[in-house]
Amino acid sequence: MPAFGLMPMSYRVIGVVVFLAVLGGGSAALAWQFQDWRYGRQLAEQAKLHAEALNQLTLAAATQQQTEQDKRLALEQRLSTSEHTHYRALSDAQRDQGRLRDRLATADVRLSVLLDARDDASVCAVPSASGGSRVDHGAARARLDPAHAQRIVAITDAGDRGLIALQACQAYIRALAR
């Protein structure tokens, strides 16, 4: 058994350390080499952690971008549906107004106004419309001139289009506000 209770393996380790110390210029060089390895490992670990953090940020940004894109597509679909609905309402209103104008032009329909029974001048000045289909139980009515009736229909047509456009704008704002 060797002196001082050291094992043969321990002599080899001590020999390698001494050899490296002599070869590297002393114990200071060996300490510097050891610190270089330790700092190199720490820098590599920091670089790895930094790369993982950047990867997580990139994935989070991509997820957020996909979410925003999905929201935008959903909004575009809602707006498209709303636009289609309002376009259909506008076409229906224009078609109905066109039919009414045609019926007024061919005298299928006549517009009349209800006269105030308390106004003696208006009752005497304009005869009431004839026919048995009165809704107002015999109140005096006056038939409008067809040209005036056409103008009234044109005004109501413009009003209907304005109301439909207003509803479309309100639906658009509601869709954006969601």
Would you kindly provide a written description of the structure presented here, covering whatever features stand out?
This protein is mostly helical. It has a domain at 73-177. The protein is 75% helix and 3% strand. A two-stranded antiparallel ribbon has the order 1-2. It is rod-shaped, with a radius of gyration of 47 Å.
Characterize the biggest β-sheet.
Answer: 2 strands, antiparallel
Arithmetic mean pLDDT:
79
Count of discrete alpha- or pi-helical segments spanning 4 or more residues: 4
Shape: rod-shaped
* Spatial gap, N to C terminus: 87 Å
How are the strands of the biggest sheet laid out side by side?
Answer: 1-2
In which range does the helix fraction lie? over 70%
Report the structural category: mainly alpha
Parts with pLDDT < 50 across at least 5 consecutive residues: none
Integer-rounded radius of gyration: 47 Å
Topology, please?
Elements: H1 8-23, H2 27-105, E1 112-114, H3 120-125, E2 141-143, H4 146-177
Helix pairs in contact: 2-4
Gist of the model:
With 178 residues, this protein is mostly helical. It contains 4 helices and 2 strands, in the order H-H-E-H-E-H. The radius of gyration is 47 Å and the shape is rod-shaped.
Structural descriptors:
178 residues, 3% strand, Lysis protein, 4 helices, mainly alpha, rod-shaped, 2 strands
